[in-house]
Amino acid sequence: MKTEVRIGLVAGATILSGLMLTQCQPANDAAIVTDTTTLESIRESGELVVLTLEGPTTYTQYDDDAEGYEIDVIEAFAENLGVTPRYVVMDDVEALISGIEEGHGHLGAAGLTITDSRAERVKYGPAYKNTEESVVCHQKGPAPADFDQLAEVNLTVLAGSSYVETLQTLREDHSGLNWATRRAGSAMPMLEAVSERRIDCTISDSHLAEYARRLYPDLIIPMTISEDRPLGWIYNEKINGMDQALEGWFMEAHASGYLEELDERWFGHLDEFDYVEVLRFVERVEQRLPEFRNYFEAAAEDTRFDWHLLAAQAYQESHWDPNAKSPTGVRGLMMLTLPTARELGIEDRTDPEQSVEGGARYLQKLYDRIPDGVSGEDRLWFALAAYNVGMGHIYDARRLAERQGLDKNSWSDLERTLPLLTRPKYYKTVKHGYARGYEPVRYVRKIRDYYNMLRANVPV
Q: For 231-245, how does the pLDDT look when each residue is reduced to its tens digit (9 = 90+)?
């Protein structure tokens, strides 16, 4: 059976294949939390019911996999408890909070800002991330720089969100502020509406706003309306022991660097925004990709990789130009070297079908050659980096990681040691010598970027 390799958001990847099975179903009328519910009873049941909201940084369903930053954190917490999460997607913020109040879920995880009014209704676990509330507009429309100017725009925000609470507080000093609300799982529908100029502006958490700019490059962020605001999970206070479990787990997750690493993977590079580059990519999705999509889909059927990933890699290699050629002689959509093409039985590197099929098989070979200690998403990053710089240099970077007390099986640690191969102090001590070690690091980051933009623009 084919096992697809999937990636999460721009700077952070998620592969849920091989982890605990998750499912999504609507809440019913029967409460699962009662006066006798305890952490131990949840462990005994083997199931943690998590209410969430659909959105690119919270919960997105792809085939049998759930993806999202929140999903990654929940999976880690649930694994620590020894239970399987079951996700229940609610319609909007109010439905989620009410669902926890009424006992339809154990936890609510959806990037919820910790506010006083919410804390009066439900209990919050420890804060795990900070975010600003950003005003997002279209570059060809109004760009308010202060609250007086914000009062003059057509502003629509997410109903039940912390943005509404912030605006209500601000209106005490800026009486002209007015806005409409819309029910949704996240601010993404409003961000899309801004991109299509159906509304002037909306408000979004800063990390979601930066993500949206990768999909809609005409979006701008002219101002923020808050300082950093903490995010936290909510839970039903009837669950005896849940508060201690959350406090203990998040304390360790902060202290170990897990949350910092996860935050970097998902959001660390979102501020590296190049309007021209993103706009060009979006245009080429429409103009060039349809000609080659069937080849990526066919190659994906014969390998473990999602076709979107293969297409993203090809874009990084050639910008989907079948006649692309580098100064070093690599050619075609997947920029194969002549020796690699011969090894794969590829007769014409400029033939798109042959190039994609050969490139996918070559990536599969590299993936299979990665040492057994490298697993999950890291194995994919290693394989992509090897495609770019060669497997020998990957082995050298792993040796350097060992010498420095780092984890040779972790991509985040290899991102630190690969660039060292440009320095004589290091490359003279390893087998394969000098390498442009910054390039595979950028290569993997770019592919992850293009992959997520592609999945959002061409989801099927």
A: 999 999 999 999 999
pLDDT digits (tens, 9 = 90+) for 10-37: 333 333 333 333 444 444 566 789 889 9
Query: Among 334, 328, 326, which Cα is nearest to 350's?
Result: 334
Question: Which of 378, 350, 156, 351 lies closest to 265, judged by CA?
Answer: 378
Active-site residue among 317, 357, 377, 415? 317
CA distance 17 to 75: 12
For the domain bounded by 133-226, which CATH number is listed?
Answer: 3.40.190.10
61 DSSP β-pair partners? 66
**Residue 246 Cα distances to 50, 80, 218, 243, 448, angstroms:** 14, 11, 40, 5, 31
Domain boundaries, the chain: 39-126+231-267, 133-226, 276-457
CATH number of 39-126+231-267: 3.40.190.10
Q: How far is 232 from 225, CA to CA, in rounded Å?
A: 20
Q: Which CATH number fits domain 276-457: 3.20.20.70, 1.10.530.10, 1.20.1250.20, 3.40.50.10840?
A: 1.10.530.10
Active site residue 317: yes
- The span from the CA of 84 to the CA of 47, in Å, is 5
Cα 368 to chain centroid distance, Å, stands at: 25
Whether the model clears a pTM of 0.85, i.e. scores above it, the answer is no
